[in-house]
C-alpha cells in the first residue's frame, strides 16, 4: 500500500489580480477587522467632524450637516502594511476635496492629519489628497458598520491602510508634518504601497 502524500494546497490566484497587488502583498481571502483599542459608541446628537489648522474657515459639521454634503461612490483597493490586500472594495462618502473647498485650505498647508475618536491619528502629505480619498459612510451600499469605522472613516485606497482612519472626528491641515499613531514607531509618512513605503527609518 502506498501512502498518499498530503495534498499541497496552492491558493489559486487569478494572474490579473496578482498584477494588481503592490510588491510584497498577498491577496486576502477574508477581510480582517484591525484596529487599536475599543470601538467607540456613536451618538448622532453629539457627533461632529471638525476641520481646523491651515484653513480660512474652520468648520465643525454635525451628523445631519455632514450627511448633507455631496457623496460619491468609488471602487478602491486596500493594502495593509501587514501584507494582506483586498481588491475592489466599494465605498461611498464625501470626497476630501469637498471639505477642502468648504474650509478654504490655505496655500501654506502641506500636510493633513486625520484624527480618529480616541486619539488614533495618521498624517499624509496634502499631495495625497486625490479625488478617490473619501470620508466614507458606506461600504457596498450599506452604512459603515461600527467595526469598519462607522459612522465615518477615511478611505485612501492608494496608501497603506493604516492611513484610513476609522471613527474619523477631525481633519487638521498643517504647514509642518506631525507623525501619527504608527508613524511615531517609524512607519512611513507617505505610505505609497507601490513604492513599498512601509517605514521611514
Ligand atoms: N481609528 C483607527 N483607525 C484605523 C486603525 C486603528 O487602529 N484605529 N487601524 C488601521 C489599520 S492598521 C488597518 S489595516 C485598517 C483596517 O481596516 P479594517 O478593520 O476595516 O480592515 O484600519 C486602519 N484604521
Ligand atoms: Mo494595517
The count of domains is: 1
Known CATH architecture: Alpha-Beta Complex
CATH class: Alpha Beta
At the fourth CATH level, what is the homologous superfamily? Answer: Oxidoreductase, molybdopterin-binding domain
Bound molecules: ligand MTE, molybdenum atom
Termini gap = 57 Å
Describe the structure.
The chain has 201 residues and is mostly beta strands. It has a single domain, classed as Oxidoreductase, molybdopterin-binding domain (Sulfite Oxidase, Chain A, domain 2). 9% of the residues lie in helices and 30% in strands. The chain has three helices and eleven strands; from the N terminus they run αβββαββαββββββ. The strands form two sheets. Strands 1, 4, 5, 8, 9 and 10 form a six-stranded mixed beta sheet that branches. The chain has a five-stranded mixed beta sheet with strand order 3-2-11-6-7. A hairpin with a 2-residue loop joins strand 8 (134-139) and strand 9 (142-143). The protein is globular, with a radius of gyration of 19 Å. The relative contact order is 0.20. Bound molecules: the ligand Nc1nc2c(c(=O)[nH]1)N[C@H]1C(S)=C(S)[C@@H](COP(=O)(O)O)O[C@H]1N2 and molybdenum atom. Residues 31-36, 80, 116, 120, 148, 161-162, 164-167 line the site of ligand MTE. Molybdenum atom (MO) binds at residues 34, 80-82, 161-162.
Amino acid at each position: 500500500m502506498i501512502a498518499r502524500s498530503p495534498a499541497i494546497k496552492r491558493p489559486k490566484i487569478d494572474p490579473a489580480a496578482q498584477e494588481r497587488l503592490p510588491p510584497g502583498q498577498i491577496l486576502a481571502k477574508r477581510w480582517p477587522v484591525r484596529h487599536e483599542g475599543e470601538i467607540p459608541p456613536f451618538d448622532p446628537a453629539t457627533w461632529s467632524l471638525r476641520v481646523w489648522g491651515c484653513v480660512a474657515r474652520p468648520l465643525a459639521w454635525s451628523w445631519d450637516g455632514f450627511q448633507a454634503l455631496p457623496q460619491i461612490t468609488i471602487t478602491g483597493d486596500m493594502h495593509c502594511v501587514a501584507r494582506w490586500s483586498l481588491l475592489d472594495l466599494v465605498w461611498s462618502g464625501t470626497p476630501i476635496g469637498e471639505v477642502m473647498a468648504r474650509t478654504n485650505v490655505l496655500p501654506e498647508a502641506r500636510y493633513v492629519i486625520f484624527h480618529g475618536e480616541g486619539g488614533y491619528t495618521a498624517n499624509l502629505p496634502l499631495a495625497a489628497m486625490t479625488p478617490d480619498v473619501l470620508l466614507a459612510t458606506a461600504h457596498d451600499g450599506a452604512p459603515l458598520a461600527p467595526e469598519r469605522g462607522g459612522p465615518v472613516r477615511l478611505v485612501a485606497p492608494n496608501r497603506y491602510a493604516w492611513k484610513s482612519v476609522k471613527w474619523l472626528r477631525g481633519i487638521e491641515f498643517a504647514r509642518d508634518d506631525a507623525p501619527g499613531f504608527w508613524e511615531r514607531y517609524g512607519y512611513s509618512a507617505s505610505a505609497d504601497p507601490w513604492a513599498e513605503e512601509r517605514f521611514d527609518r
